[in-house]
Specification:
Blueprint: E1 2-8, H1 14-27, E2 32-35, E3 38-40, H2 50-58, H3 65-68, E4 71-73, H4 87-99, E5 104-108, H5 123-130, E6 133-138, H6 143-158, E7 163-171, H7 173-189, E8 194-199, H8 202-205, H9 209-216, E9 219-222, E10 233-236, H10 241-250, E11 254-259, H11 263-270, E12 274-280, H12 287-296, E13 300-302, H13 307-314, H14 326-339, H15 342-348
Parallel strand pairs: 1-5, 1-6, 2-5, 3-4, 6-7, 7-8, 10-11, 11-12, 12-13
Antiparallel strand pairs: 9-13
Helix pairs in contact: 1-14, 10-11, 11-12
Length: about 350
């Protein structure tokens, strides 16, 4: 059995790469399964791990979700974990069940490789435990992102975890040339390999209105049937109406956040490329706003938080690929075929 551990920081594309590689390897005739030793849902939210649910359905795995994800944590896990419990033993047993009878096991990491380091269950320690080969996912925001990548590569090397290489994923268009011309050569100069550079793709990376609604817990006033729209930009409607119009026209597929009493700003947003209108302060808008949103089929979400709190909540929202999202699933495989050296990844697995 070959084992591939995909690790990286939040928003680095771990799930889409895990899914794309799993499906590509299946196309090549391998039996493939997915395992996620530790789940850390945002804010410690209850419910099934969405990555595990996606993989279970798409890969048609017969194992229960509790076996695919044997351990879940929240940001205050040290307050409740049992010091005398053998968590690693539970994870080992689940790993053995999932790995049995498959040729390639894809292992998904938490939102950052260092999580659970207090219990020795961080991604690097677990990769060493399972004898996995690692892929490090790189989310490039600026030059510091490459510093972080080199740091983690060195740590994997120090811990004697085989590293297949790095994949730059969800790379913004303005940073593509710099990634290819500067970041990749610098990484190579340190002796670390780049396995792929994948441009950001809204259909995979951009959250949907539904995901924003789930994060905010608001009330839908219009456009309930259009919650699958993607949100590429978030704009705060706190400016004058003249400035708002200019700014709104420059931002396609956006969510506009404004006070429920700013009807003129809301109406301006509805006349441009807007995926959702988020009204804050619990203030119901003028009836003409709802009427126009209904006409244009644009979701309107009313929340009782202020604008600042609403923005804070949205900051943690990332796109989740769902099992029913056939287009996004297909794109994950296309990205592997077009942008990643998947053959070298296969060869790196002992």
């Amino acid at each position: 059995m070959k084992s591939l551990y995909i690790m990286g920081t939040a928003g680095s594309g771990k799930t889409s790469i895990a899914l794309g590689l799993a499906l590509k390897f299946k196309q090549e005739g391998f039996t493939v399964a997915y395992f996620k030793p530790v789940s850390n849902k945002a804010g410690g939210a209850a419910g099934a791990d969405e990555d595990a649910l996606l993989m279970q359905k798409v890969l048609q795995m017969e194992h229960s979700l509790d076996t695919i994800v044997p351990f879940s944590i929240g940001p205050s896990y040290l307050s409740w974990h049992r010091h005398n419990h053998e968590y690693l033993k539970d994870i080992r047993e689940a790993h053995e069940k999932i790995a049995s009878g498959v040729e390639i096991l894809i292992i998904g990491g938490t939102s950052s490789p260092h999580l659970m380091g207090c219990l020795g269950l961080d991604a690097v320690s677990l990769a060493h435990e399972f004898g996995s080969t690692a892929i490090f996912m790189v989310r490039i925001e600026n030059d510091f992102s490459l510093d972080q990548t080199i740091f983690f590569n060195r740590y994997l090397e120090y811990k004697k975890v085989p590293l297949a290489g790095n994949i730059f994923s969800n790379v913004p268009r303005p940073l593509l040339a710099k990634t290819e011309g500067i970041y990749q050569p610098v990484l190579a100069g340190h002796g670390y390999r780049t396995l792929g550079i994948i441009p950001a793709h809204p259909e995979i990376t951009a959250p949907t209105v539904k995901e924003y609604l789930e994060a905010l817990g608001g009330e839908i006033l219009a456009g309930a049937e259009k919650l699958d729209r993607i949100v590429e930009n978030v704009v705060i409607g706190a400016m004058t109406i003249e400035s708002a119009l200019v700014y709104f026209r420059r931002s396609p597929n956006k969510a506009v956040i404004t006070g429920g009493d700013r009807s003129e700003v809301a109406m301006a947003a509805l006349e441009t490329s807007t995926s959702a209108l988020i009204l804050t302060g619990g203030l119901y808008p003028d009836v003409k706003v709802i009427s126009r949103a209904d006409e244009k089929n644009i979701p309107v979400i009313l929340v009782h938080n202020d604008t600042y709190s609403t923005i804070e909540k949205l900051a943690s929202v990332t796109r989740r690929i769902r099992a029913a999202d056939e287009r996004a699933i297909k794109l994950t495989v296309e990205n592997i075929e077009k942008y990643c050296d998947w053959r070298s990844i296969l060869k790196s697995l002992p």
